[in-house]
UniProtKB/TrEMBL annotation:
Domain of life: Eukaryota
UniProt record similarity statement: Belongs to the ITPRIP family.
InterPro entries (UniProt xref): ITPRIP-like (IPR026250), Mab-21_HhH/H2TH-like (IPR046906), MAB21L/cGLR (IPR024810)
Sequence ranges assigned to domain Mab-21-like HhH/H2TH-like in this UniProt record: 392-462
Organism: Amphiprion percula
Topological type in the membrane: Single-pass type I membrane protein
Described purpose of this protein according to its UniProt entry: Enhances Ca(2+)-mediated inhibition of inositol 1,4,5-triphosphate receptor (ITPR) Ca(2+) release.
Protein name: Inositol 1,4,5-trisphosphate receptor-interacting protein
UniProt keyword Lipoprotein, yes or no: no
Transmembrane annotation, as ranges: none
Residue ranges the record marks as coiled coil: 34-72
Compartments where located: Cell membrane; Nucleus outer membrane
Length: 537
């Protein structure tokens, strides 16, 4: 028995002393020493396996002898056998943990292969500058944004009411009430110009309806590069109902259809062009919708312009409802009134175009927006995060740096929507207590680090589509929760030049971060907040 115990101790001691993580050599990153280390590890593993085999054989022999002598000593040998197994298992697990701990920092630092690249941990931002920037910039901007929202909501109500009065309900689309989305209505807008995004749902004229074909529908026939999009088919009421002949046969004056009234059967049949469809199809076309909406908005403003003492112009002729309001004082407010189609009874909308100017998919494909659900997700977190949490400050700082860098090096594939998506992913993965005001510097590094890894992998998943982590209180439709995730960086995979330009933009933004923030901090601390930011942003 004493010999067996000594044997166990000897094997365990050999395993610990020969463990490769116990006495690491210096400069182990050199390839020659890596090969030597791996060779020694293999030799040690072979020795351990041989010693373990001998030990097991000896223990089995001694167990058989002990069974003949006494049951008490047999139990002791089972104990020593189990103990040796536990020790070996612990050593192996420690080795795996130690190896992973050594690999992770390398992964975090070696994000891009280019020389001179900078990481989120290398970016050092002074806490006082961050705090001063947030106090002077974001809080003052919040007060001004509230006044702008109040004006925009009142003006939009008046404009849309005038638009409804110039539309023919029997021919034109029916316009609903607007919904505010984006940074201005999510309380993280910080950069000029003052811009408000409003979506305006519209429905088909009388006797018509919309049918929706999503990219995730089994029989949609939507190309793979149109993920997140859908098609909208305009159908006449009752034309897809089997067994009804009232629309195609002459029933006579004395015959009535039990499914449709006399007015329905005698309704005017619109051509696809009149229904704003793509040529020779019954699918709704974005170009046709935007042209109709722009003409309608122009007529609506002409009817109420005498009531207002400011000038309204179309900021972008290619985007319907992109309005610029200029007051006599010189102040400018930008409005994006976006015509959309509601997906059945959900809060998801097919949008005609994105206000950020992103490349839109061709007709008849409509991108699907989940802006309402994203706003509800932010509200969900706001109820659970600590008071004066830093999550919106982190987003404001990153969007400020991104906008300033875009002014220096031009636009790239990175957008504010990608930055917001990054923040939402982190909010879903971290505990609410981690977002206290005192943790702003660390959370800002997390946001930049997450975005950096996403750029390296060329993959940033949509935060709602196919994400089971989203709380059920947000009420994302089940069909959206269960589909495959969508990569928002898909264009970076297909376009190398665009990817290189985006990486360069991001690296320059990190290098200039401290300078960009510090450049405006002296102005902010001297009370010149509005003047300095209005000119620079």
């Amino acid at each position: 028995m004493q010999g067996g115990i000594a044997r166990v101790c000897m094997v365990v001691a050999a395993a610990i002393l020969n463990h490769p993580s116990l006495f690491p050599q210096e400069n182990t990153t050199l390839p020659e020493q890596d090969e030597d280390l791996i060779a020694r590890m293999r030799e040690h593993e072979e020795r351990l396996e041989m010693e373990q085999a001998k030990l097991e054989k000896e223990l089995s022999q001694m167990d058989s002898k002990q069974e003949e002598t006494s049951s008490e000593e047999g139990y002791s040998w089972y104990f020593w056998s189990a103990l040796s197994f536990v020790i070996f298992l612990t050593i192996e697990m420690c080795r795996v943990d130690f190896t992973e701990a050594e690999i992770r920092p390398v992964e975090d630092e070696d994000v891009f292969s280019e020389t001179g690249s900078i990481t989120s941990r290398m970016m050092v931002l002074d806490k006082d500058i961050l705090s001063n920037f947030c106090d002077k910039c974001t809080y003052a901007a919040a007060h001004e944004n509230w006044r702008v929202r109040e004006f925009v909501e009142g003006f939009a109500d008046d404009l849309l009411e005038s638009l409804r009065s110039v539309c023919d309900r029997e021919v034109d689309m029916e316009v609903g009430d607007f919904v505010g989305i984006g940074s201005m209505f999510e309380s993280w807008k910080v950069c000029k110009p003052l811009m408000c995004d409003l979506i305006v749902p519209f429905s088909p004229p009388d006797l018509h309806s919309f049918q929706y074909h999503l990219w995730c529908s089994p029989s949609s026939n939507i190309p793979p590069d149109m993920q997140g999009c859908g098609k909208i088919k305009v159908t006449r009421f009752g034309e897809n109902e089997e067994g009804c002949l009232c629309g195609s046969a002459n029933l006579g004056e004395d015959m009535l259809c039990l499914l449709h009234s006399r007015n329905d059967a005698a309704g005017v049949s619109h051509s696809p062009d009149e229904l704003l469809c793509s040529k020779n199809t019954h699918f709704l076309a974005k170009d046709q919708v935007m042209r109709w909406f722009q003409i309608s908005v122009t007529k609506a403003w002409g009817r109420i312009s005498h009531k207002y003492d400011f000038e309204v112009t179309f900021r972008n002729l290619d985007a319907a409802g992109a309005l610029k309001i200029r007051f006599r004082s010189g102040k400018v407010i930008v409005m994006n009134i976006i015509p959309v189609v509601q997906l059945e009874d959900t809060d998801a909308y097919f949008v005609s175009h994105f206000p950020s100017g992103c490349d839109s998919c061709p007709d008849p494909y409509w991108p699907l927006s989940f802006a309402i659900y994203e706003r509800n997700l932010l509200k969900h977190f706001a109820k659970r995060l600590p008071q004066n949490s830093c999550h919106l400050h982190c987003l404001q700082i990153v969007t400020f740096l991104h906008r300033k860098q875009s002014g220096l090096t031009g636009k790239c594939a990175l957008t504010n929507y990608h930055l917001k998506t990054t923040l939402l992913h982190l909010l879903l993965s971290k505990k609410p207590s981690a977002w206290g005001a005192e943790s702003m510097e660390h959370r800002l590094q997390d946001v930049i680090g997450f975005l950096q890894r996403s750029l390296q992998e060329k993959r940033l998943n949509h935060v709602l589509i196919g994400n089971s982590k989203v709380p059920k209180e947000v009420r994302v439709p089940e069909m959206i929760r269960k589909v495959e995730p969508i990569n928002l960086f898909r264009s970076l995979v297909l376009q190398r030049e665009l990817y290189a330009a985006t990486v360069k933009h991001f690296q320059e933004m990190l290098r200039n971060a401290a300078v960009l923030l510090q450049e405006y901090t002296p102005h902010l601390s001297n009370g010149g907040l509005h003047h300095s930011l209005d000119e620079s942003l």
